[in-house]
Amino acid sequence: MFILGVNAPSDPVETILTKQQGESGQSIKSIADEAAYNSVRHKLGLDLPLFYFSITNATACDTLYRIPKSNVRDNLAHIAFIYGNWPNVAQYYATLKQFETAVSKIKSDSSNAEDIISAKKNVSELYSDYDQGKINVALSKLNTVLSKPHSTLQSLAPKLSELKESEKYFIDHQSPYQKCIPVVHWYGFRNQYHHWLVSFLKGDFGFSYQDMRPVSSIIGDAMKWTLGISFISILLAYFIAIPLGVKAAVSKGSNKEKLTTSGLFMLYSLPNFWIATILIIFFCGGDWFSWFPAPGAAPIPSDASFMYHITQTIYRLILPVLCWTYTSLAFISRQMRGGMLNTLGQDYIRTARAKGLPENKVVWKHALGNSLLPIITLFANVFPLLLSGSVVIEQIFSIPGMGQVSYNALVANDYPVVFANTMFAALLTLFGTLVADILYAIADPRISYSKREIV
Amino acid sequence: MSDSKNIDNDASSQGYWRMVRKQLFKNRVAKYSIRFIVVLLVFASCADIIANEKPLACNYQGHTYFPVFRSYLVSIGISEWPAELQNVEWKKLNYQWAVFPLIPYLPQNIDEANIHSVGPFDKQQVSSIHWRHWLGTDELGHDILAAMIYGARIAMLVGVVSMSIATIIGLIMGLLAGYFGDDRLKLTRAQIIFNLLFIVLGIFYAFGLRFYALNDALASSFISFLLQLMISVVMFIVMLCIGNVLAIPFEKIPFLGRKISIPIDIIVSRCIEVMMSIPTLFLIMAIIAIAKPSVILVMVVIGATAWTGIARFVRAELLRIRELEYIEAAHALGYSEIRTIFKHALPNAMSPILIAIAFGIAGAILTEATLSFLGIGVPADIITWGSLLSEARSKPTAWWLAIFPGIAIFITVTVYNLLGEGLTDAMDPRLRK
């Protein structure tokens, strides 16, 4: 999870800063904003090394992570990789920075505004060039800008020649074989991974990049919905599926049974997002029936009575719960049928029948108990299925649960939310497995977990 | 002697598969499922011939051309378009005669006369019945039937490719865990140390040092990236071999030469459990979030998350097989581990893998449809069944956008599930008559 977050393409600091600056849309380029950039970066702890140690080639610098912007950082690492002498490249970077500061200090007026813009453009070009040819082109462009007569920029000429010197120096003094030597750097506990792990274990999942709300409160709100609906639909699925499966197993071979079985099979392969879409098209307003409110309808007024609140919520949840339930329903009842068929073939059932017990009693009392056992463990399989399903169904029906939060965070590159959400989904699944195991042990006294073979 | 044994072996293994096939074809549902899959595969592979904007054959300015077939040649670089046919609008040319494909549209083509979602039964602005949009158009005027046919190609590709990836990973993991268990994989300490060391070094030299080369290749084209990746993988394997060779002299030292059994089963089982505990869609979304959308990535990611099922099947089967007497016999005869695994143990574990693959393809197609329905993973310009369905959400009156792709997904998934079901029955000895 953490690895994914670090490799994420967009720069979280920029996301936050653009959010804070409102929709002005300008990205942080100028020197003045760099302080703001660094402070946010420090707050997020991104100015620390990634892991406890790193293995790099000898050209790379162990303090590279101190350079704020990721594109500059990558570029410098690339230059160092090609020419193999980090100190000289660092010198070049320092000179480039000085030059940039000098450029931004010159007051812009109508006569030189264009030149300053062009100079700044070339400087930012230099920050992202690693190819010698490209660097030289940018440098010579800077040269033409500066050498214009009567320009206020002429004062920068010595700085530029210094820059050129440093560029020439690292090209002349290259040692490309350095990169074949592996080096291990040890950073200690002051690293991003350690901080992330410790705060995760403490229950602090960081802040959302979108609105700086703590992730734990976002997930807490979302989890109420997802868990609530999952709970309802699991109950529903079990209550309908068990009698259905038993009936199908008892009347095996009859036409009615064949119909139910194949119907259940089809239900199992019906994509739930399709059903949800069709239900919305045909039953929620539109040209056909408007039996149910359209998803995302006006929220229930908060001053409404408690009963109204409850009935409205239930009314709105009918369709989502339907879509949520049917896949697991089909899955469980198919397994129930299989388990029941297996049990009905056992010797003790024959004994029960031979005793003259009524068929009803044989099925519901003697067979059901034993065939229920594998169904209990299915709980562990159904639960992740429901969580995965939540992504689509919550999206379609606009339910603010974990799936929707995850999806929205994903679209907005809000990684702390995405990763915490995924971790929670995994924890919930593990919890489901645990519950299933405990239920299994309660239901079947023969099973003990003191010595277990995992298959 | 050995020849006759081989013949025996072949005959009996052929016999088993023949029996399975017979059982499978006895099952009517499974038989029709297979036929349907074959038809679907034909549709998917011949999509260019069935639905295309170019004519199959035409006579233009006195010359006869076969533009659809020629475009294959052009794409591999053997042939080139003649000057008068370069960058032309194929439908507006003045042909002497032309034979157009059954559906004269590409999914990308926009029919300006029929924009804003014209239904299949609505009045359409077309010149003749051949040009009719049989399944209607969408908001921008794309032909739905053409999109459905090209969507079949994507669905089949995703199903097959991602399951191949999943099978390879699952097979290796399941084999290691099931065959070796916790006690059979024994390595000397020197081997362990050298392997760990050279894995790190191999990653450093093969991938770390070539990082920029790989990056540039990825930016230029996928084929060159594959080539560079191959070079890296070969380098990595060579490094591992060097490590193992270097370990040999060190094994003479008593301390380093002692054998330790590696609990590979526990390691693999924990890996499987960790993978299974994360709901698939959340995991896939988190991975896809950080990369550029592409169909290949979707295939790889689905494959990389779907291997657990196959690995569990293989592991369970091999745990059973490795206790059988004929494996013991193979050991007694001094066969190498590799020979025992691939020639004797694995062929007997194949049947559950086939079942898992059939169900897995259904799952992969469903996952891909879900992803493109949500608009993540698959690039916007590639039309799939899932992306067609998502268009229906923004335009609820266009029922044909919801019904047809949905039915396509449903039938394809069902058919693969039915095939899996049929295979299960055919391989179940209790059901054999």
Strand and helix layout:
The complex is a heterodimer of chains A (455) and B (433).
Chain A: H1 2-7, H2 12-20, H3 31-43, E1 53-57, H4 70-83, H5 86-105, H6 113-127, H7 132-146, H8 157-172, E2 182-186, H9 192-202, H10 215-250, H11 255-269, H12 272-283, H13 306-344, H14 347-354, H15 359-397, H16 402-411, H17 415-443
Antiparallel strand pairs in A: 1-2
Chain B: H1 2-26, H2 28-45, H3 47-50, E1 57-60, E2 63-65, H4 67-76, E3 97-99, H5 144-180, E4 186-188, H6 189-208, H7 211-220, H8 222-250, H9 254-257, E5 259-261, H10 264-277, H11 280-289, H12 295-321, H13 325-332, H14 337-374, H15 385-394, H16 399-427
Antiparallel strand pairs in B: 1-2, 1-3, 4-5
Helix pairs in contact in B: 1-16, 2-5, 2-16, 5-10, 5-12, 5-14, 6-8, 7-8, 10-12, 11-12, 12-14, 13-14, 14-15, 14-16, 15-16
Structural class of chain A, by secondary structure, is mainly alpha
Largest interface, with counts of residues having CB < 8 Å to the other chain, equals: A-B, 54 and 49 residues
Q: Could you tell me the number of beta strands of chain A?
A: 2
Number of H- or I-type helical stretches of chain A: 17
Characterization of this structure:
The complex is a heterodimer of chains A (455) and B (433). Chain A is built from 17 helices and two strands. With 455 residues, chain A is mainly α. A two-stranded antiparallel sheet of chain A has the order 1-2. Residues 1-12 and 14-32 of chain A have low confidence and may be disordered. With 433 residues, chain B is mainly alpha-helical. Chain B contains 16 helices and five strands. In chain B, strands 2-1-3 form a three-stranded antiparallel β-sheet. A two-stranded antiparallel sheet of chain B has the order 4-5. In chain B, helix 14 runs antiparallel to helix 16. Residues 1-12 of chain B have low confidence and may be disordered. The chains are: A mainly alpha (455), B mainly alpha (433). Chains A and B meet through strand 1, helix 11, helix 12, helix 15 and helix 16 of A and helix 6, helix 10, helix 11, helix 14 and helix 15 of B.
